[in-house]
Design goal:
Length: about 300
């Protein structure tokens, strides 16, 4: 994993329909070289799922993370599958631990009632003895009304393969290629949905770590802390997941080996502004449908009725 792969993965996460030409401009390579890198990331299992989702704010959804601790007597793969039974849970990582079992869970919820529901679900699972759940600070955007019939028809075809070419969309919908291109531009500009490429950062020989850190707000702000992490670890640092209610976040990193993970963890712990930190190593993951994907699918299921 290098800076170019990182840029490609992040760009595909934002828009998996991005062209090889546009990616090439971002990383200063030829389109063919970028294509080879993308295919290599897919072959290694780093880029796995391509899908269409609502932007969470369109359905008033918020995000959460949870650390779930068990007594260790469960079957990890079966436990992760059980986690996926909740429609609020979209991703679960199995964490390395010296005692018992540990899982890092991501998901989405709408309203406090649903947040309570997912908290109760996690706490009532067999073998679970502790759950640390918090709401993630997420960007908000203004909602922009309903989809047009044209947009729904295009999205309905695309959900089977978000990477589908314009010509194939036109053939399957009976709409001209010119109209399809216009619809895709309008969908992108509207921003209600995103075409996502989901990555498995624990795939292959990479080491995926999550550092839970609490910082001193009197010394550094969240914005400055994230800026420092990006500057200090331009390739290794990937995503911050800050809490809405307290100066705490779980920061995600991808490193070459455990030695590098230990170095980064020690450097973060040694700063004046980080009050405490805990490093968690992820060694497998389970991917499920996020609520923002489920809610969009419910709308697209009715397209034939329109």
């Amino acid at each position: 994993m290098d800076a170019i792969d990182r840029t490609i993965i992040l760009a595909v996460y934002e828009n998996c329909r991005i062209s090889y030409e546009a990616l090439a401009q971002k990383v200063k390579l030829t389109p063919n070289a970028v294509k080879n890198r993308v295919h290599n990331l897919i072959a290694k299992g780093v880029l796995t799922h391509f899908l269409i989702v609502f932007n969470p704010s369109e359905i008033d959804a918020e995000s959460f993370q949870a650390i779930v601790l068990t007594d260790g007597s469960e079957d990890p793969s079966k436990f992760v599958s059980t986690l996926g039974l909740s429609p609020m849970i979209g991703h679960a990582n199995t964490l390395a631990t010296v005692q018992g079992g540990a899982y890092l869970v991501w998901g989405e919820f709408i309203g406090t009632e649903m947040l309570h529901e997912v908290s109760t679900f996690l706490r009532n699972l067999d073998k679970v003895h502790d759950v640390d759940l918090y709401v993630v600070l997420s960007p908000k955007r203004e909602q922009k009304g309903e989809f047009s019939k044209l947009h729904l028809r295009v999205l309905n075809v695309l959900r089977s393969n978000p990477l589908m070419q314009t010509s194939e969309i036109a053939q399957l919908t009976g709409i001209s290629a010119k109209t399809v291109r216009r619809a895709l531009k309008e969908i992108a500009a509207d921003g209600k949905v995103s075409f996502r490429g989901r990555a498995d950062l624990a795939a292959g020989s990479l080491v995926n770590i999550h550092i839970r850190m609490e910082w001193d707000e009197k010394i550094i702000s969240l914005e400055k802390l994230v800026k420092w992490l990006n500057k200090k670890y331009p390739v290794a640092f990937w995503f911050p997941f800050p809490s809405v209610t307290e100066p705490m976040m779980i920061a995600e990193f991808v490193v070459e080996d455990l030695k590098e993970a230990e170095r980064i963890s020690s450097e973060i712990r040694a700063t004046d502004y980080v009050k405490s930190s805990t490093t968690m190593v992820a060694f497998s993951s389970g991917k499920f449908s996020y609520l923002s994907e489920i809610k969009l699918s419910e709308i697209l299921d009715k397209v034939d009725e329109i």
